What we know:
The protein has two domains: 4-251 and 400-411, no CATH class; 255-375, Conserved hypothetical protein from pyrococcus furiosus pfu- 392566-001, domain 2, CATH 3.30.1760. 31% of the residues lie in helices and 24% in strands. It has 13 helices and 21 strands. Helix 4 packs parallel to helix 6 and helix 6 packs across helix 9 (211-227). The longest helix has 17 residues, at 211-227. The two termini are 17 Å apart.
Amino acid sequence: MSLIRAFPGLRPAEGRAADVAAPPYDVMNEAEAREMAQGRPWSFLHISRPEIDLPEGADPYAPQVYAKAAENLHKMQQDGILVRDAKPCYYVYRLTMGSHTQTGLVAAASVDAYDNNRIKKHEFTRPAKEDDRVRQIDVLNAQTGPVFLVYPSTAAVDTLLSQASQSRPNMDVTAGDGVRHRIWILDDDTLVARLTREFESMGALYVADGHHRSAAGSRVGASRKAANPDHTGEESYNYFLSVIFPHNQMQILDYNRVVKDLNGLDTAAFLVRVKESFLVESSQQPVKPGETAEFGMYLDRRWYRLRLDPARIPSDDPVARLDVSLLADNLIEPILGISDPRRDGRIDFVGGIRGLSGLQQRVDSGEMAVAFSLFPTAMEDLMAVADAGEVMPPKSTWFEPKLADGLVSHVLD
Length: 413
């Protein structure tokens, strides 16, 4: 079983990509999804967030929600909005956000490789969310949300993708957030075979985003294998939809923290405790850290720059040396008393796409007492954690730009 393979993608018909393309299902709430889909009958949100076509307040995990998604998917195919390619293809996917561009490959990735850690993970999944993706795949009989994978940049693959995307794209959509999505169909058998061989020679791929979708793909594959007495390993359920980018083109933004209270301390006492581990400097400007082990802190309408004592930075532990771990281990847990950020309601997380002003607003409103800005996690650090078989702390990475839903889907025959 190869690491990746081509597949006959289900995609928007010519001229329909802009009507179909939608943000990932999990970056919005129901109200926002309803608003985005208003007046857009072919938006993929009718498949990825089908509760928007049911009365408000419907349980998003109810059977009728998944049934509505399947109904909508069938209608989009029946009406010619979505068409399926006649033969297995790869697809080049280029994202452009401002001055940043990244070019990857849409492919079906091996469940077997995922199960055997050749496709490496770095996060835990939540059962409810994983179950939701399993039901969605099963009812649709298709994987419609791609898993965001990363390959160690390889000159041969990078060059092939660059050369294959010199012509006019088959799909070209600029989303409402200004991100441009372009896709080229690769149906040349020789090129498809060469790309398959090049990826097969790689040691591993890495899950950047989409741990629930990849875990769900594995579970669906296992259940269908168990139910198929004629299983061969070549069935489409042995693979899951992915988009694979070179690691050196990734853009990881900071993933910042806000906390509701100072754990019983007043401002003066809190600062005394912080200074036990950090060099603390007041700043007239918002602090966007410029290097690892440097943090911004917003407290009582004032910014501070924190620099951790170098003696407190472990060098031999790929998880403990992450900035999110350094802040947690030296401040958030010992001073603010938050030991389980997954479940403690006193802490929240703010993606770097919202800027430092997003942190200030949460504190100035009185909702939160203190905010921390962090230096972004490096892709190499994520890969080191995955290679070590470890798990990153929650909310360690915020990838931008996001993939669109609906441009290519993987049907399970």
